[in-house]
Amino acid sequence: MTLPTPTNRKVSRFGRLALAFVLAISGLLGGWFTNADPAAAHEPDKSVIYLDIFANGQIEGEVQLPATIVAEEFGFDLMFEGNSEQDIAETRDTMAPYVAEHLRFTGVDDANIDFAMTDTELLETESGEFAVYNFELEGETADTRVFNLTYDGLMEEVDGHDAFVVIRTDFGGGQFNNEGNFLDILDAGNTSLDIDLDDSSVWKGFVGTVELGVEHILIGTDHILFVLVLLLPSVVLFNAARRWEPGTSFRSSLWRVLKIVSFFTLAHSITLTLGGLGILELPSKLVETIIALSIIAAALHNLRPVFANKEWVVAFAFGLFHGLGFAGLLSDLGLGQGQRVLSLLGFNLGVELGQMFIILLTFPILFVLRRTTAYLPLMRAGSVLLALIAAVWAVERIFEVDLGIDGWIMRFTSTPQVWALLALSMAGATGLFFLQKSQGKLIEPAAPGSADVAEASERIPVGAR
Questions:
Q1: pTM for this one?
Q2: Intra-chain end-to-end CA distance of the chain, in Å
Q3: What are 286-336's pLDDT values in tens digits?
Q4: What element of type H or E holds 165?
Q5: I need a labelling partner for 232 at 20 to 30 A (CA). Which of 31, 250, 296, 360 fits?
């Protein structure tokens, strides 16, 4: 369908207002998301006690001990490369009973709540290495939300040793995958903590799942790259001559973005719901591999379009698998059936907010660049780079190896680096635009209806052109 051609003045006015709105909303969302990312509780010389409170009343947790202190005080050489099952078993046989001896739970009637030590593992984090000892509360008293925790491990052996207590998972308290906000700190002078989780609500759980969705999309680099690779052609059109040219206007480019995002949202909402309710399940290795392959397919589509000016088709097709990737996270939260539906809604809303944030930050840069002679080379180079990154991910996921690409990507996607990169990109795009405008090198935008012409040309046999 061909839209009426507005005057240049109206298009320019609409573009300026829309661009100002986009940048303002980006700033607001950027501040909110940045402030919502607390510092991690991990410190290399401190212990951490994590508690997971599940919907069925079950309480599980883990005690993380600094590997260096365990090695110094108990003689275990916890080398994190080449550890054998026997090494971990020896650590467990000695340290798990030690942890159990120094850990105690009591109910409101001061009766002991029994717990059992389960498995042992070794954990590497950005701040250090830890020996992890898991436990699970037992008996009828485990379903209470008011209890006392006492722990004094390593406090006699190491002067000034502290232990952070963190509620990592609790729907009623709105906590999911929380590793930054600690409840309290135990030390030699204060080894006991009264925990009261009765101040819970469905609203807190809903808000918590929204925040979890936002966090997942912002730290899910593969999802971010898929959205970015779909956005690259949103500000250009593939014309009847089978060449890319600048999009008609801000309005038409924004409309294309909305179509892409809407169909991606529709697709991943369908499979997120089916997966979250346990109706549809696929092996996580398969899903994660297809997600990586989806980035490659979308990038190759930018180089040689199959669905010209219909990137929403690609977004919908692969969005189905991205939804299953989202569902895998919710399945590990121990949600009850009643909480699951509400959590799906909240998590999906959070994912959409995260996507909106990414789009609001990147779309203005792409739109400003679209009429410069640099855009198409940059789009092609960017598509090739994203395809190569995704190819490495695919190899890692298929063969279950770590090729170290995530650490390289984190150098550019972590704050404050990402903010500096975005600011430099916007400044560079604006400067190049005005430079080429003064030189008369800007490419004229496509005529209204070019997308319709291009789509129609795809249905004409090559020999008949």
A1: 0.79
A2: 22
A3: 999 999 999 999 999 999 998 888 899 999 999 999 999 888 777 777 676
A4: strand 163-170
A5: 31
Instruction: Give mean pLDDT, residues 388-409.
Output: 92
Measuring CA to CA, how many Å separate 157 from each of 14, 42, 130?
A: 68, 20, 17
**Helix-then-strand count for the chain, H and E:** 13, 11
Q: How far apart are CA 70 and CA 78, in angstroms?
A: 8
Average pLDDT over residues 150-167: 95
Structure token pair of residue 355: 């996507």
Number of domains in the chain: 2
The answer to the question of residue 282 being in a domain is: yes
Q: Which domain holds residue 195?
A: 47-200
The length of the chain is 465
Is 136 in the same domain as 248? no
Give the bridge partners for 132, in sequence order.
64, 121
User: Do 27 and 75 have their domain in common?
Assistant: no
Same domain, 102 and 22: no
Residue type (1 letter), 238? F
Instruction: Read off the amino acid at residue 380.
Output: R
Residue 52: the pLDDT is 93
Residue from 251, 249, 309, 247 nearest 457 by CA: 309
Provide CB contacts within 8 A for 359, sequence distance 6+.
227, 231, 257, 261
CB-neighbour burial class of residue 271 (10 A; exposed 0-12, middle 13-18, buried 19+): buried
Main-chain dihedrals φ then ψ at residue 78, nearest 5 degrees: -85, 75
Measured in whole angstroms, how far is the alpha carbon of residue 23 from the centre of its chain? 22
Burial class of 392 by CB neighbour count within 10 A (0 to 12, 13 to 18, 19+):
middle
What residues does 195 pair with on adjacent strands? 147
